[in-house]
Design a protein that fits this description.
Strand content: 5-15%
Structural class: alpha/beta
CATH architecture of the largest domain: 3-Layer(aba) Sandwich
CATH topology of the largest domain: Rossmann fold
Number of strands: 13
CATH superfamily of the largest domain: Glycogen Phosphorylase B
Strand order of the largest sheet: 3-2-1-4-5-6-7
Length: about 375
């Protein structure tokens, strides 16, 4: 198979694309991959580090208000469209897969104009503008949440497939997670993380929660601060009573997140699509604090989807403080039966076979295209 992947801007778009590429390469040894992104996006660093050939086009997003910037965006789109057609004609892929971000627009649209089968993957409950636009031209659409399907009601081949990132973490070894933290296997602990860069509001609530956390017996807290907040957190944690200090560990970043997540009793987290795919793939209960600082507030519907299924408790950032966070964490950690019900609900939402499902969808699109020729 010759496969073009495209998606960029954030890891939430990039890692699903890489997971799809990895699945195709495993299923068909000798598969050739090409990734098309932007030179300024995170993908320009992540993708080459994975040994995957990378080409770039330049594109920017539309402003929601009338602006000269939108005129420049149209010009860039047309230029990126022409550049994408050149790359696709040269590479001759069997299919093009887009996972979101502005760069998908010209690449997937160019593929559709050239008669190349296309598949787009939507990670969030509420689709982004790019995927909404592309769904009119895509051969197939895969979504992470069943709640997304009504947004693609006019697409003939739309499927609830899950997030392919889930397939990468499903077999994580919890024993390695405990060992990396220096904890005995089976130690109950809450993993609190505000995203790879940390989140000030989440960190502050965790700090405010700590005096009350002392009452949770033998429960430990692993607090992932983000690098920019790590020194400040360490300074504040130094003032904790010795008995509590033994049960609280601050880390700037976790490099083996799937293993640590697999070992966790409960996670306090933002509600990014890839994070939720990992959480549900491993069946971990969660307290979700959706970020209000993302496009279209898309994390809140993500969190609501888990909360309505009983897999999570949601706290909006406007309601977040040490008291509200402690109340949620305590009620779950003090009630093993409830925690197990939440874990079961989380596992019920998990789709560790997502990458394989999307791979099969790709094959269907390729076969359908060949029949039409």
């Amino acid at each position: 198979m010759r496969l073009v992947l495209t998606g960029g801007g954030t890891g939430g778009h990039i890692y699903p694309a890489l997971a799809i590429g990895r699945e195709a390469a495993e299923k068909q040894p000798g598969t050739e991959l090409l990734y098309i992104g932007t030179s300024k996006g995170l993908e320009s660093r992540i993708v080459p580090s994975q040994g995957i050939p990378f080409e770039s086009v330049e594109i920017s997003g539309f402003r929601r208000s009338m602006s000269m910037q939108n005129v420049r965006t149209v010009v860039r789109f047309l230029q990126a469209f022409r550049r994408s057609k050149e790359l696709l004609r040269r590479y001759k892929p069997d299919i093009v897969v887009g996972t979101g971000g502005y760069v998908c627009g010209p690449v997937v649209f160019a593929a559709s104009r050239l008669g190349i089968p296309t598949l787009i993957h939507e990670q969030n409950v509420v689709p982004g503008l790019t995927n909404k636009f592309l769904s009119r031209y895509a051969s197939a659409v895969a979504v992470s949440f069943a709640d997304s399907l009504p947004h693609f009601a006019r697409v003939g081949n739309a499927k609830h497939a899950g997030n392919p990132v889930a397939s990468m973490v499903a077999k994580a070894d919890k024993k390695k997670g405990f060992a990396s933290l220096g904890l005995a296997p089976g130690t109950p602990f809450v993993l609190a993380v505000g995203g790879s860069r940390g989140a000030k509001a989440v960190n502050e609530a965790i700090m405010e929660m700590l005096p009350g956390f002392a009452g949770l017996g033998e429960v430990h807290l692993v607090f992932v601060t983000g690098e920019r907040y790590y020194e400040e957190a360490q300074t504040r944690l130094a003032g904790l009573p010795a008995e509590l200090s033994k049960r609280v560990r601050a880390l700037s970043y976790v490099h083996n997140m799937p293993e640590v997540l697999a070992a966790a009793s409960l996670i306090v987290s933002r509600a990014g699509a890839s994070s939720l795919a990992e959480i549900t793939s491993l069946g971990v209960p969660s307290v979700l604090i959706p970020s209000p600082n993302v496009t279209n507030n898309h994390q809140q519907p993500n969190a609501e989807s888990l909360a309505s299924a009983g897999a999570a408790v949601m706290i909006l950032e406007k309601d977040l403080n040490g008291e509200s966070l402690l109340a949620s964490v305590s009620s779950i950690m003090r009630d093993p039966a409830r925690r197990e019900r939440m874990a079961a609900a989380s596992r019920g939402l998990g789709m560790p076979e997502a990458a394989e499902t999307i791979y099969e969808q790709m094959l269907q699109a390729i076969r359908a295209s060949k029949r039409r020729r």
